[in-house]
């Protein structure tokens, strides 16, 4: 928790959308912990119920129970959306129409979204990057530019209510900005 209390989520729910397989574990667990420390309630959303299989790079890691499927989850229940990375995770998500629609609805509602590493691939599929300044894992820069974004190489980039970061090494900066943006939105809406 912050000493000033300004970055608090006070019981607000935050959606974490992942594929059922392929999410980078630390990019799920560190933002999850940051939401909890800010007083928020993280909820795991995936294309299907059951579990999500996380990875440490290319090696299987832990599994995490899914709270709701993307088809069942109502974006109105959440103050923000976190999109963890992992190479396979966003590639699988962008082929699931319910997940893509879930993402798009946060942008349509003007709610904050935080995406790290390869996660912006799903933002391209949701057609929400045009005109935005953002960052990602470097290999996505061409895809993001082709979709109309301005890509820059910085540890964390905030464009309105969109927070993006490049990689696990940026998690401290990412989680700090993410909770700040989510808390500001929660306190003003």
From TrEMBL:
The keyword Protease applies. Residues 12-180 form the DJ-1/PfpI domain. It comes from uncultured Nocardioidaceae bacterium. Pfam families: DJ-1_PfpI. One of its GO terms (biological process) is proteolysis. InterPro entries: C56_PfpI-like, Class_I_gatase-like, DJ-1/PfpI. This is Intracellular protease. Keywords: Hydrolase, Protease. It comes from the Bacteria. The keyword Cell cycle does not apply. Belongs to the peptidase C56 family. GO terms for molecular function: peptidase activity.
């Amino acid at each position: 928790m912050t000493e000033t209390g300004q970055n608090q989520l006070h019981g607000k729910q935050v959606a974490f959308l992942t594929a059922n397989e392929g999410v980078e574990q630390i990019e799920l667990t560190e933002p999850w912990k940051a939401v909890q420390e800010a007083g928020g309630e993280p909820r795991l959303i995936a294309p299907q119920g059951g579990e999500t299989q996380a990875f440490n790079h290319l090696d299987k890691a832990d599994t995490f129970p899914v709270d709701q499927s993307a088809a069942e989850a109502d974006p109105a229940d959440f103050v923000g959306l976190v999109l963890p990375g992992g190479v396979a995770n966003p590639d699988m998500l962008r082929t699931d129409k319910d997940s893509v629609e879930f993402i798009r609805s946060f942008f349509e509602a003007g709610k904050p979204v935080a995406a790290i590493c390869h996660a912006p691939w799903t933002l391209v599929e949701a057609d929400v990057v045009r005109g935005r300044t953002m960052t990602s894992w470097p290999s996505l820069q061409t895809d993001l530019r082709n979709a109309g974004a301005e890509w820059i190489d910085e540890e964390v980039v905030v464009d309105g209510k969109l927070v993006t970061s490049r990689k696990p090494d940026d998690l401290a900066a990412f989680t700090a900005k993410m909770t700040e943006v989510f808390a500001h939105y929660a306190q003003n809406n």
